Amino acid sequence: MLKAKHQQLFDILVQEFHNGKWPRGKKLPKLKVLAEKYSVSINIASKAVDLLKNEGMVEAKVGDGIYSTYKMEIINKYHYSGDRIFGRYRGAKTLKILVEDNSPNQLIFWNDFFQNFSAENPDIELDVNYQINHSEKDCCSYGAVFGGFSFVRSVIEPDNEGLSPECVRDFLPNLFGDCVFDENNFPGYLPYGYNASLLLVQPECHFPAPDENILEYVENLPATKQGYIIRSSKMLLSGMNIDTNKIGTDDFTKEDAELMLSVFERTKRLYRAGKLLWYHGKVLDKQQLFELLLNHNISAMEVQSNTLKDFSAEMVNVLPYPYGEKPCITAHFVHISKDTLYPEEYLRLVKMLLSEKIQKKAEEQGIFYTIRKNCSSMAPENLRKSLLNNNVQLPDICTDIQAEAFLNFLGWEFYYYLEGRRGPEVIDLIHKKVRYYYEHNNQTGK
């Protein structure tokens, strides 16, 4: 059963709070703006905001507006100290850690990992927090944060660059020696795994051909009215080898614009034929999309590899996502505070996380794909080959202002083009809007 519209809008707003879009003190848009953005009535928007108030996530200032009072709640707090029958070891250091993952199967993996680490390192005790939504409580300070780039960025202080590559090499010179990523790829962020998109499809859908991109795949779906749902315009464009990070900057060329328009045109043909569906601005959770697939309302849907276990996919097939020539992946990181007094101790955690044993275990339990070169991987063969050849895209590694600009402009203008409300000028319009947005947020072009 689908949730009421105001509950659906509440869910997506909560996710935005969780992703750092509405930090404490930030003013929310007026109800009319919210209603227009999410294609709902003002009454629905008002009810959704009332739910936010009930959760203590926002407050109304008379005559001024609605302001965020949100801070991420930390629940499931655990203290790991190994098998210490006689209590605490004298001089044991306590490391404070925040972990993004909190689904049941993720908690099983991380709990086992931290327990084993503490048992093997008696000079270290761990205070680990697994985050979840819906809270106004303040976060405490952490020496390390584990998770995706967007999550890590949302909970660390803006001026905390993390440990420098030089510091990492001082304590563990060969930490990333057998990995496809290293500390130089992402200064301040230490990668430990990645996930990517997969397709859940009806049994009659074909297996993607080598180098087939997503639009080619959709074009070859069975000739029915059931289509494929676009989850992200940015992901779709990236899958068509378009560097969206150029939009709004001096690097965006005439050739880039022409390629982007050709993808828009091709997508529009599929959209009008019913082979490609677009729910931009509407609120549907993963399980609701899965029900559309099970009920044969759509032919295929996209999921992230580390959420696949959330679905019981007995009636559908799991296929590799047709990325084209340059697959898109989402990397996972450990961010260690530059101010920590225990860099070597925190780096021991990273070293264990990068071990062959833990990397294989993470894949088996669906937590993340391995980044070790010498590990056999459960990742699709074409994706693994691209990763080893350094031929992948990282669409989530962008600034907060980029992410917000793309959400505000790219998806909506793409949608208006599909609906016929924009013509070929849409590419230049998106570029100008994003550039203006950068400039007025004190961001200059590249």
Tell me what the structure shows.
- This protein has helices at residues 5-18, 31-37, 42-54, 104-120, 149-155, 165-171, 214-219, 233-239, 254-272, 286-294, 343-353, 356-364, 381-388, 400-418, 426-439; strands spanning 58-61, 65-68, 73-80, 93-99, 124-132, 144-148, 190-201, 227-230, 276-278, 298-304, 317-320, 329-336.
- It is of the alpha/beta class and 446 residues long.
- The protein folds into 3 domains: 5-68, Arc Repressor Mutant, subunit A, CATH 1.10.10; 73-193 and 329-388, Periplasmic binding protein-like II (D-Maltodextrin-Binding Protein, domain 2); 227-273 and 399-446, no CATH class.
- Strands 3, 4, 5, 6, 7, 8, 9, 10, 11 and 12 form a 10-stranded mixed beta sheet that branches. The protein has a two-stranded antiparallel ribbon with strand order 1-2.
- α1 (5-18) crosses α3 (42-54), α2 crosses α3 and α14 (400-418) runs antiparallel to α15.
- The relative contact order is 0.13.
